[in-house]
Structure formats: C-alpha cells, structure tokens
Amino acid sequence: MARHGDRSEDAVVSQPQDRPISTIVIIIAMQTEALPLVNKLQLTEDLEPVFPKGVPWVRYHGAYKDLNINLIWPGKDLALGVDSVGTVSASLVTYASIEALKPDLIINAGTAGAFKAKGAAVGDVFVASDCAFHDRRIPIPVFDMYGVGLRQASSTPNLVNELNLKVGKLSTGDSLDMSPQDEASIIANDATIKDMEGAAVAYVADLLKVPAIFVKAVTDIVDGEKPTAEEFLQNLATVTAALDQAVTQVIDFINGKCLSEL
Ligand code: SAH
Predict the structure, then answer these.
(1) Which of 34, 80, 208, 221 has its CA 20 to 30 A from that of 237?
(2) Is the Cβ atom of 89 under 6 angstroms away from ligand 1?
(3) Under DSSP, is residue 169 helix (H, G, I), strand (E, B) or coil?
(4) How much is the pLDDT for 6?
(5) 195 CA distance to ligand 1 centroid (A)?
(6) pLDDT reported for residue 8
(7) Are 250 and 159 a contacting pair, CB within 8 Å?
(8) Are 82 and 1 within 8 A, CB to CB?
(9) Which of 26, 30, 234 is the pocket-test mutation for ligand 1 (most atoms within 8 Å of CB)?
C-alpha cells in the first residue's frame, strides 16, 4: 500500500487502512457529469495545474468536511472539442493524478449502461464489485486473461448497506454501442453494468496500489428496446442528478472513516 516515492519506508510507517481517509481523487469522464458535483462540493478549478502543460485535463479541488477532494475531468478533446471519454484518457488522468496528488482513495464516478436481465433500471446507482474489459480479445492462453483484465474494487460492505446502493460487476470497453463479440464477453464477465472507463481506472489504481471504488448511475438499458445513444442522451441530465447525489452521500459516508470501515 505504498503511495509515496520511498516504498519500503511507507510500508513500515503508514498503515492507510487504519487512519482516516484524507485525500480523495474523483475521476469523471464527462463535463455534464462533473459540473453539478463541482458546484455541490464547492470545488474550484486549479489555477496552478498539476498536470503537464497543454493537456486538456482539469482538476477541481477543495476542502469538504475533513477531506481534501480532487475532481479530475479529462477535459475536451483538443482537436474535436468533445469529452475525452474512454479508457486511454481515463488511464492517463488516473496515473497523473496518483503521481501528483497521492490520494488515499480513488472514486471513478459516471454514467453507465446496464442490463435489465440482471435487474437494473434507468436511474439505479451501482457500486462495482469488480471491473473487467470486454473488447480486448486475445485468444492465446494467458493473454486471454490479460485482455479481460479482471480487477476487484476496494471492498465497501458498510457503505453499500448504509446507502442502499446496488452492487454489480462492471464491464468496460471503448465503444458506446455493443457488438455481438462484446456482448459475449460482457456475458462471460457476468456484468450488470457497462461503461467506457472503469476497468482502465482499476488497472492503474491496482498498478500503483491505491484503493479504488466505482459509482455508476444507469442512463440506458443495453438489453432494452431503445437505441443506446438516444436513451443515453435522453436520461443524461436526470441520471446525472442521481449520480451526484449518490457520490455526495458516498463522500459524506467516507468522511472521518478509515478504508477498513467502508
Ligand atoms: N454521446 C455522448 C457520448 C458519451 S460516451 C455525448 O454526447 O458526449 C458515454 C459515456 O457514458 C462514457 O463515459 C461511458 O462511460 C458512459 N456510458 C453510458 N452508457 C454507456 C453504455 N451503454 N455503454 C458504454 N458506456 C456508457
């Protein structure tokens, strides 16, 4: 659980499980999802960027209760002006944020598709129990498992019980739609929710040994009748409100607690 440069020293000195969580990094892919939370938590945009010059990544930060909150949004694509969604930007900002801010906990929050066959409905808020990829098919022994990249989220039994959140497995890929191959992999992953960032954030968090949790609000039903893009845009605003409320409750719950109490 080393978090700073000197890993051996950290392993002896700090026991992050046993002291209250202090610094949180929240990774959110879309501006529409991020801004209401920025306002609610009264965060301010960074004036002295901690990220390399020229990147579109934005950090909002502030003190909230006993917590030092950093909300990171990968920003708008420099060439096309749309949100930098997907796994590439998500892994980069997760890596850069951990390096710069040394968080005790990462929260990846966002919207997601979900499966009604697994009991999900639009507006539900899920906490992911684990994350895997569904579009990295490498049919060679062991590489196949590397492609799936299954990683467990930090365990939060008290948090999900207290806040009455649903728990499900998350499957991540770089497409909003779902090809038949993706569908087969999502079924193999036993996933209830589908997004474009979670497993990438989980990969980097695991690499750098920072605990991570995933809070996902359902904008669209993948196995429903409506086309995904249409349903997503239709529900984005209302579901974002549900997401922001849930993330605020999660932060309120975390405040003053150690990782082992979540
Ligand atoms: N048309 C949108 C594109 C957003 S991409 C726009 O106007 O900007 C979708 C984003 O929402 C990603 O960050 C992804 O994590 C999440 N998402 C919501 N529903 C999804 C689904 N069914 N499949 C994959 N990602 C989904």
Answers:
(1) 80
(2) no
(3) strand
(4) 46
(5) 7
(6) 47
(7) yes
(8) no
(9) 30
Average pLDDT over residues 131-140: 98
Instruction: Please tell me whether residue 51 adopts helix, strand or coil conformation.
Output: coil
Confidence label for 159 from pLDDT (cuts 50, 70 and 90): very high
Residue 146 has a CB neighbour count (10 Å cut-off) of 12
User: What pLDDT was estimated at residue 20?
Assistant: 96
Q: Is 228 in the pocket of ligand 1 (CB under 6 A)?
A: yes
- d(CA 113, CA 172) in angstroms, rounded, equals 10
Q: How confident is the model at residue 58 (pLDDT cuts 50, 70, 90)?
A: very high
pLDDT computed for residue 9 by the predictor: 46
For the chain, what is the mean pLDDT?
Answer: 93
CA-closest candidate to residue 253, choices 178, 191, 160, 119 = 160
Asked if residue 85 has its Cβ within 6 Å of ligand 1, the reply is yes
Q: Crossing angle of helices 198-207/87-101, nearest 10°?
A: 30
pTM across the whole model: 0.92
Query: The tokens of 13 are what?
Result: 């000195």
Cα gap 69→23, rounded to integer Å: 6
Q: Side chain identity at 159, as an amino acid letter? A: L
Which has the closest alpha carbon to 198: 29, 74, 24, 82?
29
Per-residue pLDDT for 253 more than 90?
A: yes
Cα 247 off chain centre by: 11
> Which domains does the chain show, CATH number per domain?
23-261 (3.40.50.1580)
Atom 21 of ligand 1 has which residue's CA nearest to it?
113
Residue whose Cα lies nearest atom 25 of ligand 1: it is: 195
